[in-house]
């Protein structure tokens, strides 16, 4: 191990002690009698000070010839210094160049020059060196960690389902076909069918954080072709039960980021408001009438347009659920109400800006499921592997899928979903 301390682990009280810090040459300022090298590591900046009078000439030469953004290891003594940014500086005994950076750099990392998103994504490794970018992904990490904590605490078991599949989850057109030896296969658009199989399997409560693939036709700021879904499925629970789990999860994640991600929120200049539970339950009928009152052209039975989502969101003003959807615009596995089958036990969970999650109580009767598949014009033969599980003891169950990127982007007020993915996939972008 080369590094002894991160920048944030050194304190002025360590005065006189020897340390080795590692990082990138953030800035080199040569004032003649004194030379400053600012080293940036994952956690922050460290000032390294070279006094011409006392410094080893070789060390001074290395620093003077250093190119910006090269990787260095600096070994030296901590010196308490009130004028240095962290109250200390390092007086080096040795500076090793571990990875030289060419110049010019593919993009500016200081934040002084505004780079457009395409340039940043083309040089994402470099973009990650900017504090604002890193802050987003440090928060993304905190979110995934807190989701696991919360769901683990609720008795959910983490599973991993296949991404290469033979059948479309919903038959839809939004699929990427791939070649799988001699056969056609697809990239999975959702873990839906597999997580339901595990209800028959008796795992009771499962979750997955994994990729979903969708051949989205349109280029929008909230759709990716490869996204991350947080999915749960739970037996012996109904639609309302899993809605309560969902709203509590969102609140937990926000609180957890506020508590553990303060530094990153400060870097980004945002202070997300922790949502209050329970979220409002707005019926689909009511949502449509709000949109229409706001002047949107939308009919009962239509899925919500982006404009309607915005208009309803503005009226409601905070996270909310839309419940009791028309059965015909929801997938076949959603349970219709027994006494009013034209609407179903489905819900969407919304942030005022966009949909974050869809879920429902599921059909668990084999006969009903079979006829729902056929009614939707799908071939039941292709679903045999799935339907089979409903013939040998399937408990009632419910679940949802929550878009990880959407949760993150709405929490941080990020405009474009591509900002919150390391290497976003969209119609034009397949590399890096
Ligand atoms: P939308 O109406 O916004 O297109 P959807 O209803 O098609 O979303 P679902 O099939 O309900 O999406 O998927 C569950 C969740 O997964 C969505 O609520 C959303 O948060 C997320 N999601 C779906 N498609 C995408 C995508 N292309 N890019 C990013 N996130 C997505
Ligand atoms: Mg969609
Ligand atoms: Mg939708
Ligand atoms: Mg949806």
Largest sheet: 9 strands, mixed
Q: Classify the fold: give the CATH topology of the largest domain.
A: BirA Bifunctional Protein, domain 2
Hetero groups? adenosine-5'-triphosphate, magnesium ion
**Which word captures the global form?**
elongated
Class based on secondary structure composition and strand pairing: alpha+beta
The count of strands amounts to 17
Number of domains: 2
Q: Order of SSEs, N→C?
A: EEEHEEHHHEEEEHEEHHEHHEEEEHHEH
**Which homologous superfamily in CATH is the superfamily of the largest domain?**
Bira Bifunctional Protein, Domain 2
Uncertain ranges:
none
CATH architecture of the largest domain: 2-Layer Sandwich
Terminal residue distance:
30 Å
The CATH top-level class label of the largest domain: Alpha Beta
Give the DSSP E fraction (strand runs of 2 or more residues).
Answer: 25-35%
Range of helix content: 25-40%
Residue-averaged pLDDT: 96
Keywords: Aminoacyl-tRNA synthetase, ATP-binding, Cytoplasm, Ligase, Magnesium, Metal-binding, Nucleotide-binding, Protein biosynthesis
InterPro entries: Aa-tRNA-synt_II (IPR004364), aa-tRNA-synth_II (IPR006195), aa-tRNA-synth_II/BPL/LPL (IPR045864), Asp-tRNA_synthase_2 (IPR004523), Asp/Asn-tRNA-synth_IIb (IPR002312), NA-bd_OB-fold (IPR012340), NA-bd_OB_tRNA (IPR004365)
Family: Belongs to the class-II aminoacyl-tRNA synthetase family. Type 2 subfamily.
GO cellular component, one term: aminoacyl-tRNA synthetase multienzyme complex
């Amino acid at each position: 191990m080369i590094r002894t301390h991160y920048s944030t682990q050194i304190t002025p009280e360590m005065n006189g002690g020897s340390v080795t810090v590692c990082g990138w040459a953030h800035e080199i300022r040569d004032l003649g009698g004194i030379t400053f090298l600012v080293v940036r590591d994952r956690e922050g900046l460290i000032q390294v000070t070279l006094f011409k009078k006392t410094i080893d000439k070789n060390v001074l030469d290395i620093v003077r010839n250093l190119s910006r953004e090269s990787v260095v290891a600096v070994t030296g003594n901590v010196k308490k210094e009130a004028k240095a940014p962290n109250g200390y500086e390092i007086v080096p005994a040795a500076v090793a160049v571990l990875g030289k950076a060419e110049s010019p750099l593919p993009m500016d990392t200081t934040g002084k020059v505004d780079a457009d998103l395409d340039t940043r994504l083309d040089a994402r490794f470099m973009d990650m060196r900017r504090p604002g970018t890193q802050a987003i992904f440090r928060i993304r990490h905190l979110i995934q960690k807190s989701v696991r904590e919360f769901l683990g605490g609720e008795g959910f078991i983490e599973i991993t389902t296949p991404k290469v599949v033979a059948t479309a989850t919903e038959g839809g057109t939004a699929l990427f076909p791939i070649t799988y030896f001699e056969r056609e296969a697809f990239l999975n658009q959702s873990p839906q069918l597999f997580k339901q199989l595990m209800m028959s399997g008796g795992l009771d409560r499962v979750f997955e954080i994994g990729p979903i693939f969708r051949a989205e036709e349109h280029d929008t700021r909230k759709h990716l072709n490869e996204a991350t879904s947080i999915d749960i499925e739970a037996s012996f629970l109904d639609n309302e039960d899993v809605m309560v789990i969902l709203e509590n999860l969102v609140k937990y994640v926000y609180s957890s980021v506020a508590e553990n991600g303060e530094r990153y929120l400060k870097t980004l200049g945002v202070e997300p408001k922790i949502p209050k539970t329970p979220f409002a339950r707005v019926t689909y009928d009511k949502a449509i009438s709000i949109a229409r009152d706001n002047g949107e052209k939308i009919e009962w039975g239509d899925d919500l347009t982006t404009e309607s989502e915005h208009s309803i969101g503005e009226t409601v003003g905070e996270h909310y659920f839309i419940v009791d959807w028309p059965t015909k615009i929801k997938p076949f596995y959603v349970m219709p109400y027994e006494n009013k089958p034209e609407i179903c036990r489905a819900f969407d969970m919304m942030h005022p800006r966009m949909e974050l999650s869809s879920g429902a109580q599921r059909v668990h009767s084999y006969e009903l499921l079979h006829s729902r598949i056929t009614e939707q014009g799908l071939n039941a033969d292709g679903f045999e592997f799935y339907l089979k599980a409903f013939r040998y003891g399937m408990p009632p169950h419910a679940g949802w899928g929550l878009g990880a990127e959407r949760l993150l982007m709405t929490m941080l007020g990020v405009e474009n979903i591509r900002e919150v993915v390391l290497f976003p996939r969209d119609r034009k972008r397949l590399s890096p």
